[in-house]
Write a structure and sequence with these properties.
This protein has 163 residues and is α+β, with helices and mostly antiparallel strands. It folds into two domains: 37 residues, no CATH class; 98 residues, Glutaredoxin (3-Layer(aba) Sandwich). The chain is built from eight helices and four strands. Helix 2 packs across helix 3 and helix 5 runs parallel beside helix 6. Bound molecules: FE2/S2 (inorganic) cluster (FES). FE2/S2 (inorganic) cluster binds next to helix 4.
């Protein structure tokens, strides 16, 4: 939990931070380093300013998430698992994003977008590159749909993604 909080604040756990945590917890730095290098959600270097995650688990994969990820790689100019040279974007193709019924699922930062097939991925990337994704009415994230309408009134995928 401490490591997660620190990573949220700093973006990653550097060697220096690793030593600091170890000292506070009265452990050896290697004990912290082992955790950081073992768990994929922990990082030694930060992601880009806009971090994009694509689900690759079976339900999303069957609905086209591999093509979604490849499209985002091309459009955003960043290879999966990497940060773009200018530090603006990073892309991660990862296990379940906990929205399995509406795949392919893409997260941009903490916002979740559903039914992002290859075609929708092109549109999403265009809006993201223009800095207009969050203000777009074409894509409404799961989180924003909940805020703007109670769940009982939300027609799930139709209200979140206009086709
Ligand atoms: S399988 Fe994609 S969100 Fe769970």
């Amino acid at each position: 939990m401490v490591i997660h909080l620190i990573q949220d604040e700093l973006g990653a756990i550097s060697d220096e931070t690793c030593e600091w945590i170890a000292e506070k917890l009265e452990l050896q730095p290697i004990n912290i380093k082992e955790l950081i290098t073992f768990y994929p959600m922990l990082r030694e270097t930060p992601w880009g300013k806009k971090h994009v995650r694509v689900c690759r688990t079976l339900p999303c994969a069957l609905r086209g998430s591999y093509a979604t990820c490849q499209t985002l790689e091309k459009k955003l100019g960043v290879k999966e698992g990497h940060v773009r040279d200018d530090g603006e974007y990073s892309l991660e193709f990862m296990e379940c994003l906990a929205d399995c019924g509406e795949g392919p699922v893409v997260m941009v930062g903490e916002e979740t977008y559903e039914n992002v097939d290859e075609k929708q991925a092109r549109r999403l990337a265009d809006l993201l590159l223009k800095g207009k994704l969050e203000s777009s009415s074409d894509f409404v994230s799961y989180e924003n749909a909940l805020v703007s309408k109670p769940v009982s009134e939300t027609k799930k995928s139709q209200s979140r993604l206009k086709k």
